[in-house]
Amino acid sequence: MIDTALPRAGSPGAFVLAARLRTLPAAASPVVVGWAFSYGFVGAFDWVVGLAAMIAALALQIGANFANDLSDYRRGTDGPDRLGPPRAAALGLLSQNQLLLGVGIAFSVATGIGLYLTWVAGWPVIVIGLAGMLAAVTYVGGPWPYGYKALGEVFVFVFFGLIAVSGTVFVLTETIRNEVFFAALPVSLTVTAILLVNNIRDATSDKRSGKITLAVILGGRRSRICYVGLLVSAFVIPLILVVFDSDFDPWILLVTLAIPAAIGPVRTVLTAEVGGEFNQALVSTARLHFLIGILFSLGLVL
After folding, report:
1. Average pLDDT of every residue of the chain
2. CA-wise closest residue to 134 among 116, 115, 159, 164
C-alpha cells in the first residue's frame, strides 16, 4: 500500500480520499476533446453547456469511485497487502453507509445536471446518463460485476472514450458526425492503458481473491505488451487520420509532443518486477492520458 498520511475516520478528508481526485483527469480529458471537436468541426460551442457536461462527467467519476471502494470492500478484494492507493472502507475511514451517501450525492449532482442537458439536447442524454451510472455501479458491484469478468478494459474504452467524447459533442451540437468516433480513439486507448497498468500491478492479489481481469488472463508478459500497444496506437491513430481523412488537419499531430512523457511509464511497465513499482507508472500514464487529450484537442481547434 502507498505510504501516505491518512485522514481521520469520517472526516471530510476521508471523503476526499475515497473520491480519488487523481482519477478525475481521466473523466475530464474526453470532455475536453468533445469541446474541441464541437468547436473545430461543427463551429458550435456554449460555455454553459460545456461546463455542465464537465461537471456531470466529474460527478459520475466520483460516484463510481465511491461505489467501487464500497463494492471491493464487500467482496474482500482490498486486503492488507493492497499495493495501490489506500481505500477508505478497507481502512475503516468511512462506513458503508457513508460511502453510499457519497454515491447518492455524486449521482444526484450528475442527475440534476443531466436533466438540464436533456432540456438542452433531448432524450438521448437520459440514455447516456443512465448507461454511465449503470456502468459505474456494476463495474465491481451488483450480481455480475464486469470488472471481475475481464471486461473492465472494454467498458472503460467505450464509456470513458467513445461515449464520453461523442456524448459531449451531442449536448453541444445536438448532432453526431462519424469523425467523432475516430477523434475519441486516442482518449479511449490511453484511458484503457490506465486501467490495464493498474490491473497488471494487482494481478497477483486479484487472482488470489477471485477477481479475473484482463491482466490475470493474459499474464504478465502479454499484458505488458498490450499496454505498450495501447500507447503506440494512441500516437499512430492521429497520423492515420491525417493521411486518410482530409477532415483532420495535420495539427492533431501535436500529440507526438507527448511521446517523451510515454517513455518513463513504458520502461517501468516492461521492466518492473514488484507490483508496487507500478504505482508511479499508473500516475505517469494518467498524466500522459490527459496530456494527449489536451494536445489532440488543441490540434482539433487550430
Report:
1. 89
2. 159
Burial of 45 by CB count in 10 Å (0-12 exposed, 13-18 middle, 19+ buried)? Answer: middle
CATH number at residue 88: 1.10.600
Which one, of 67, 49, 26, 21, lies nearest residue 285 by Cα? 26
Asked, for residue 71, whether it belongs to a domain, the answer is yes
**Looking at residue 4, what is its pLDDT?**
55
pTM, two decimal places: 0.91
Q: Answer whether residue 87 is part of any domain.
A: yes
What range does the domain containing 74 cover? 12-301
Confidence of residue 3 (pLDDT cuts 50, 70, 90): very low
Which residues touch 302 (CB under 8 Å, ≥6 apart)? 40, 249, 251
